[in-house]
Amino acid sequence: MRNKNMREEPVAKKILIVDDEPNIVLSLEFMMKKEGFEVAVAGDGDAALERVAGFAPDLVLLDVMMPNKSGYEVCQLLRADPARAGLKIVMLTAKGRETEVAKGMALGADAYVTKPFSTKDLVAQVKALLA
Amino acid sequence: MLSGWTVILASFAYLGILFAIAWVADRRADQGRSLIANPTIYALSLAVYCTTWTFYGSVGRAAASGVGFLPIYLGPTLMMVLGWSVIRKIIHVVKANRITSIADFVASRYGKSQLLGGAVTVIAVVGVIPYIALQLKAVSNSFTILAAAPAIVMPAQHSAVPLLHDSALYVAVIMALFTILFGTRHLDATERHEGMVAAIAFESVVKLVSFVAVGLFVTYGLYDGFADIFARARALPGLERLLTTADTAVGYGSWATLTFLSMLSVLLLPRQFQIAVVENVNPAHLKRAVWLFPLYLFIINLFVLPIALGGLMHFAGGVDADTFVLTLPMDNRSEGLALFAYIGGLSAATGMIIVETIALSTMVCNDLVMPLLLRRDWFGLRARADLSGLLLTIRRWAIVAILMLGYAYFRLAGEAYALVSIGLISFAAVAQFAPVLIGGLYWKGGTRSGALAGLLAGFAVWLYTLLLPSFAKSGWLPADFMTAGLFGVELLRPQQLFGLTGLDEIGHCLLWSLLANIGAYVGVSLLRPPDVREARQASLFVDALRLEDAGRWASGGGTTAQVSELLALAGRFLGPEKARAAFEQFARERGVALARLTANAELVRFAESQLAGAIGSASARVMVASVVEEEPLGLDEVMNILDEASQVRAYSQELERKSRELTRATADLRDANERLRELDRMKDDFISTVTHELRTPLTSIRAFSEMLHEDPRIELAERTRFLGIIVGETERLSRLINQILDLAKLESGRADWTSVEVDLAEVIRAASASLSQLYKDKGVALALDIDARLPGVMADRDRLMQVMINLLSNAVKFAPAAQGRVKVSAGGTAAEVRVTVVDNGPGIRAAERETIFEKFRQGGQDVLTDKPRGTGLGLPISRQIIEYFGGRLWLEAPGEPGEGARFVFTLPLSTGDNAEQEHAGGASGEEDTDRGR
User: Fold this and answer.
1) Cβ atoms of A89 and A108 closer than 8 Å
2) CA atoms of B931 and B814, how far apart (whole Å)
3) Phi/psi of residue B384, each to 5°?
4) How is the beta sheet containing A59-63 ordered, strand by strand?
5) Degrees (nearest 5) of the Cα angle B907, B913, B917?
6) What pTM did the predictor assign?
7) Which residue of B lies nearest to A66 if distances are taken between CA atoms?
8) A24-28 CB contacts, 8 Å cutoff, 24+ apart
9) Which of B7, B247, B282, B685 shows a CA-CA span of 20 to 30 A to A121?
10) Count of CA atoms in the C-beta half-sphere (13 A) of B68
């Protein structure tokens, strides 16, 4: 991974952070930038879809409980778009019930992370997905 | 050489043979191999009709009136040929109703009347006693004549003989003992005596063979055949008359009378009823009897005239014609034949006496003595378990009494009459049963009173016109009673009653007695309609054959008519639709249309099983039988069925009621369960929401803490900012937890409230003061417009403070910085105070004005960016508080342009006291900058 990264140094992976909670967006943004990713943020589902189109991220950190469009809906729409086939989606949710995890995975999420999460683990998971 | 002892020995030997036959037949019956289950035996046993009267008396009557003896046999022949359907019907009725005698029959027909049974019994006993006397006389005379052989000596007048030397007395005693041995050895529930019937059939053969033997002896031994006898007789002037029928009006009338009388007698004499009906094994046997019995009568009468004529020609007077059967062989030195003739006569007598006395004793016991004993309960009968011994004793004494009465009549009146005349007296007596019996079989209108009146009227006339004259003729009653009439009234002369002449005494008696009988029977019956019991019995008797036919029909193949009856029956208990559906299903399974279904055994069983489900199997059986076999449905059974049916109905109503209750309870349970599920779902949602709300600030706290912890190189400015966020989120978390607990307390009703007079204006000012720094920081102007005369309210000051702070902090949060304006107005009406909080923020969409009061339902996400987030619980809590004090909290549409959210709450004036007076520490009105939008 590192080799690859080093080889393709100028091309930083792009991550879109979607959450309606400003403080969480702030922390995630700080975290991902520090790891060297190019980061964009969105506060709700509609904004997220907009940003995906404009920003063309490699991975989306997607909160589930959001106004306008829920993370599930956004995930479904992204997965329905063949142009976004390689896009990785990591669902973030404060609702940790099994059914919700299952639902997220069924809708095509690559990973499902329960809030509050360990920053180290989250970063490792994102890196693994983008490797 | 015949000595008295030889005759006696022969007599006892013959009786012994009879007894043996009876014993064997009884044994066979017990083993189930009945000897008498044979139509020929039945026909032969019917010949018990031929008694000594036939054996000796016919010859006597033929000698006196020529062919005048014939009506006695024409009658039965006619009865068998023409009236066999009547007999068949009677047999069916008797079998169906377990009738044991003619008295039982009449009693049963008219509503099981004991009185009627008793009356019939008395009439039968009184009427038949002359007949029994006749047998005693015949046996006694024949013995006396035979014992005197070879001399022909006519018996002396019995009344002249001392009692203890009268052979008739001994005959009576021996007959009584024999009958007792014969017929009352054991008690038969059906009153059937197989052994007796077998012996009677045997006797019929003996007397026939014996008589025919004498006839052949006379016709072909003494003369040269019939032609010879009749030719010789015609030559004699006195005898020619005998060969014509009747040459006078009286003669013709007499023929008709006697034919009619004997028609009735062959059925109505107790012994005939016993043999023809009660002892009948199988109604089908009647078919052979219809021709075999008349044939028997024909054969036994074939030689009557030859013997009579031969006797008259042989003996030039001095010999009683009644004895010709005996005296002709004797006088011609054929002692063996004479003995055989005597045995024949004995057999005729014993047959009659045995059957008659058994039949009468049964009647006396069952219809006279037992009812009396049971009514009076003299011997504690009801308590006794086994009455059979007592019954047999009564019967034995009845037999003795009947024979002794017979003997007494014989001593008193017997001498004055020829055998035939005595017999006719009995015939006329039992003829009195005809109207009630025949009428009862074909007319449903007959009643108990009618039957009793008819019987008694007929019997009284018979007594007056026939029995009493027989006593008078014997000199036992004054003779002028006969000639001058009762009390000297000529119109009441017994044998010319009301001046009626031109008839012989039998015809005369029959006319008047039957007139009185039928008149009273019909007349009294018509006085009132039959009651329930009478009507029920009437239908059982009158409809007996129809019912029988209907039953055979059903089992034979059935008709569609009965299918509809079955359907109707099933419908009555199952409900018409259900029954019809079941029957249609049944028809479909057999591939036929319902209309073409036949009432075969399968359908009957099906119907029965359908009904059994509804009314129980026993009732179902009876009900179905009532349709299919038309089995007699007793009153008791009907009552039971009605009872059972009403119980079933009550039970099913009860069931229905319970089922309704159950349905209701089920619905209640379902509702409750639904509510519980809803609550459970709400709880799940609540927990899920609370979890989410708690995790959200935790996420920020954890993320920033970890970053600060792991990366010491983060710049100070960032570090400070991150720590500020952590502090803010921690506060939010604490607030959230406090509010959740607060709300839980409010909702569960466990919150502590105080309720005192609160000065609302002071509360509003205090809340404003506590938030003044916040307003100042954001540059929002807060204006208070409080009515000076604002009345007090009953409330908890701290809780009202909590509400005011919630509303004011929400307002400042959404009011634009620097240009923000928030206005609080408070005023009162007669019933309540009203507080309004208006800001000039973005406002709330109309659709959200109610949902904003739901828990965790926050609004305004789109307008707030980096402000500390609310918990989404402030407004729900505020509403709970206001409503607790009887007020309302809601969001109004903006009053004027530029207005944002407009919150209003009201509280009732302190007169409306709905809060407790108890004071306890309320939850503090913690500062809350929350606006649960």
Assistant:
1) yes
2) 9
3) -75, 135
4) A38-42, A14-18, A59-63, A88-93, A111-114
5) 115
6) 0.54
7) B861
8) A24/A63, A24/A115, A24/B696, A24/B699, A24/B700, A24/B703, A26/B700, A26/B725, A27/A119, A27/B699, A27/B700, A27/B703, A27/B704, A27/B707, A27/B722, A27/B725, A28/A61, A28/B703
9) B685
10) 22
Which residues have C-beta within 8 Å of that of residue B427, sequence separation ≥ 6?
B261, B262, B264, B265, B269, B506
Please list the alpha-helical segments (H only) found in B114-269: 114-147, 167-183, 194-216, 226-235, 237-240, 249-268
Helices (H), B528-559: 532-542, 544-556
The answer to whether the Cβ–Cβ distance between B700 and A96 falls below 8 Å is no
Task: Tell which wins on pLDDT, B126 or B613.
Answer: B126
Alpha-helix residue ranges (DSSP H) falling in B379-467 = 388-413, 419-430, 433-442, 448-462
Residues 6+ away with beta carbon under 8 Å from A86: A58
What phi and psi values does residue A14 have, to the nearest 5 degrees? -110, 130
Query: Which H or E element spans position B883?
Result: helix B874-884
At B166, the amino acid letter reads: D
Our CA angle for B524, B533, B564, nearest 5°, is: 120
A123 touches chain B (CB under 8 A): no
Residue with tokens 């009403």: B646
pLDDT of B932 over the 60 cut? no
Q: Kindly report each contact of residues A39-44 with a partner whose C-beta sits within 8 Å and lies 24 or more positions away, as own/partner.
A: A39/A14, A39/A15, A40/A14, A40/A15, A40/A16, A41/A16, A41/A17, A42/A16, A42/A17, A42/A18, A43/A18, A43/A19, A44/A18, A44/A20, A44/A68, A44/A69, A44/B861, A44/B862
CB proximity A99 to B under 8 Å: no
Q: What is the pLDDT of residues A38-50, one digit of tens each?
A: 999 998 888 888 8
- ipTM given for this complex: 0.87
Write out the H or E segment, with its range, that includes residue B748.
helix B716-748
Q: Is A118 on the interface with B (CB under 8 A)?
A: yes
What strand order describes the sheet that includes B902-908? B781-786, B821-828, B832-839, B902-908, B888-892
Q: Are B902 and B778 in contact (CB under 8 A)?
A: no
Q: Which residues of B touch A91 (CB under 8 A)?
A: none
Partner residue opposite A22 with nearest CB, options B694, B722, B866:
B866
Helix (H) or strand (E) holding B605: helix B601-615
Q: Is the pLDDT of residue B918 over 80?
A: no
Q: What angle do CA B797, B798, B803 make, to 5 degrees?
A: 95
